[in-house]
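Budget justification aside, the reviewers requested a transparent look at the raw inputs and outputs of the sequence design task funded under Objective 1. We therefore reproduce one unedited record. The lines immediately below are the structure tokens for a 232-residue chain.
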């Protein structure tokens, strides 16, 4: 039976290109949908679901959770529009070191099934992956920020969803989450999955090591090392 790899997206497979005004555009999109961007400039994105990010930014500005939920389709559409618009001008996202080569190798290896576990809303996740050409390697529907606000609930959702798609009810030990934040490690541990942490986001190797992931790497650039670690 193959091992299921659940990749985080932002900070693990790709990052926004510096200098493209990504945060500024997100602020403008939020203002268009909700009438305010709230505390978005002071809100950290890494490791959180999109709904958790919006609540943290907008609730202090007087936007209740019920209104955030109601307007999520509008927000998602606005985000997708700005992503397509900015990507048409120049690349908005870039793959993290080794990510493209690794997914290509893994996709060709029958020992692995590839999916995602991400805080992004599902349609947003697809748009981001497509922007850097990685969508063709993700063949199983995983778990997304649109499934639950709490990231720790996503491993169970991913496992159940993948069991439905493959007809195989796999134990948590057959899964590994690959992510760049302590929240990825916490989510994996809470459901009995293994976790590979990579320091390609905003957390250093030392900061990630403090949370004791099963595997810790600076990045995904050494494909043979990563694959050996995934099988360990």
């Amino acid at each position: 039976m193959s091992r299921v790899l659940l990749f985080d997206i932002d900070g693990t497979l790709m990052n926004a290109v510096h200098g493209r005004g990504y945060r500024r555009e997100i602020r403008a999109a939020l203002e268009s949908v909700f009438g305010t961007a709230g505390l978005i400039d002071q809100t950290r994105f890494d490791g959180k679901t999109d709904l958790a990010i919006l609540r943290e930014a907008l609730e202090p500005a007087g936007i209740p959770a019920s209104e955030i939920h109601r307007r999520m389709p509008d927000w998602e559409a606005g985000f997708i529009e700005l992503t397509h618009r900015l990507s048409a001008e120049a690349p908005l996202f870039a793959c993290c070191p080794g990510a493209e080569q690794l997914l290509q190798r893994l996709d060709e290896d029958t020992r692995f099934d590839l999916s995602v576990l991400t805080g992004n809303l599902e349609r947003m996740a697809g748009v981001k992956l497509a922007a850097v050409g990685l969508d063709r390697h993700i063949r199983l529907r995983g778990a997304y920020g649109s499934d639950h606000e709490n990231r720790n609930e996503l491993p169970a959702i991913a496992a159940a969803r993948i069991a439905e798609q493959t007809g195989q009810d796999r134990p948590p030990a057959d899964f590994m989450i690959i992510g760049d934040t302590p929240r990825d490690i916490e989510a994996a541990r809470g459901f009995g999955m293994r976790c590979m942490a990579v320091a390609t986001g905003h957390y250093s190797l030392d900061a990630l090591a403090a949370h004791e992931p099963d595997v810790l790497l600076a990045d995904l650039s050494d494909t043979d090392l990563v694959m050996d670690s995934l099988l360990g």
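The beta strands are 3-7, 14-16, 93-95, 112-116, 175-179, 194-198, 215-217. The longest helix spans residues 65-89. Computational costs for records of this kind are itemized in the attached budget.
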